[in-house]
Amino acid sequence: MADVAGADGAPGGWAVVFLQQGRFTVQKVRNLSEVFDSSSPPKILAVDIPIGLLDVYETGGRLCDREARRFLGPKRRSSVFPAPVRPVLKASSYAEACAVSRVSARHGKKISKQTWAIVPKIREIDDLLRARPVLQEIVHEVHPEVCFCELAGRPMSCPKGSREGQVERRQALRQSFGNLDEIVERGRKEQRLATEDILDAVVACWSAVRLADRKGRSLVEPAPRDSAGLPMTIWA
Fold first, then answer.
1. What is the pLDDT of residues 96-105, one digit of tens each?
2. Among residues of the chain, what percentage have pLDDT more than 70?
């Protein structure tokens, strides 16, 4: 089995779940570049962050964003925020980002505050993949709710931050991660990570295993490329 990892954004960095030599571990890193600067970098990294970006505003965002909402249905589609347009990455304030998004197209609209909150991490991944092109075949975009839906065969019924939502997600993951409780407890106690971020990183790792085994499914086929040559798709 190939060494892989799944990552989810967390306060101050990233929650990363590794599968190395058949063993699962969890770690918090400040920057995702640390994952690839280690002595044994993963062959595949599935990360919960938009990668390829549109240059101009489109209603609903990228095609893969719209497909993810369709796949999740009414219960969980609101969890998929439209990815910002590429020019937003240069904005230094929320007001500027909204203005840039509006003027990118005749029907352009501002970005949400939730999207603005993850722009630094989108910028981080964008810079990493453009500076180190070899990683473009290794790093793949996923969305935890899409992954959970693919894993369980249905969308999750409760929000991930609720107690019921965490129980539901743990149950879905236990069939693939026998030591799930150990992973979560170590992540919480040793790495100071939130349970919901750990669970999202675990299901991203599940998708990374599928990608390594060539069982991953792109929501958009063929995946279009953005102006920087990065793919615009979400993997399940």
1. 999 999 999 9
2. 99
Rounded-to-integer distance, Cα 160 and Cα 149, Å: 13
- The CA distance from 116 to 89, in Å, is 9
> How far is Cα 149 from Cα 143, in angstroms, rounded to an integer?
10
Asked if 11 contacts 51 with a C-beta cutoff of 8 angstroms, the reply is no
Cα–Cα distance, 205 to 211 (Å, whole number): 10
Residues in the chain: 236
β 23-29/13-20 pair status? antiparallel
Provide Rg for the chain, Cα atoms.
Answer: 17
Using one digit for the tens of pLDDT, what is the confidence trace for 110-145? 999 999 999 999 999 999 999 999 999 999 999 999
Distance CA 72, CA 58 (A): 20
Residues pairing with 19 in the sheet: 4, 24
Integer CA distances (angstroms), 212 to 39, 148, 163, 176, 219, in order: 19, 18, 32, 15, 17
Hey, what are 201's tokens?
């990183």
